[in-house]
Amino acid sequence: MYSYLNPAARSWVCQSSVNPDVEQLHRQLPDYASTPLVPMNDLANELGIGRIYVKDESHRFGLPAFKILGAAWAVYRAVAAILGVPPTLSVGELGVAAMKQSVKLVACSDGNWGRAVARMARYLHIPATIFLPRNIDRATRDKIASEGARALVVDGDYDAAIE
């Protein structure tokens, strides 16, 4: 087993350029919660290091993946741009404006992205259609549909779903 110790790690400081609007949007969404850090004590002991933590994204907004974070921001920005409104409206305000203009979301996916886009459409109260490749399993298709989206399976692979 190889290990690399970085002596500069103790003094490293994150110089993040995170857009505060993204976090503000995520905090508006139902079921927002900070992501827990799970201690991996056995692994840390096995590797002979002090601590290891894993960021557990497996329950983000009740979904099994972090995809909702990117999907929420992408959908929010795209809908705001389509409507010609500033990306400062609340999710509720943007949803009302989108409904008035009959905005619909369309995406392609082979799983978690489609469900995340469908969830954002549900938050905005607008329709969504998610195109899926033929090899998609029934459970994944049903989960996307459970968000209120129309889940359409195409005769082909992921590239066909994109077309």
UniProtKB/TrEMBL annotation:
Domain Tryptophan synthase beta chain-like PALP: 32-162
CDD domains linked: Trp-synth-beta_II
Pfam families in the record: PALP
Signal peptide extent: none
InterPro entries: TrpB-like_PALP, TrpB-like_PALP_sf
Protein name: Tryptophan synthase beta chain-like PALP domain-containing protein
Species: Cryomyces antarcticus
Source taxonomy: Eukaryota, Fungi, Dikarya, Ascomycota, Pezizomycotina
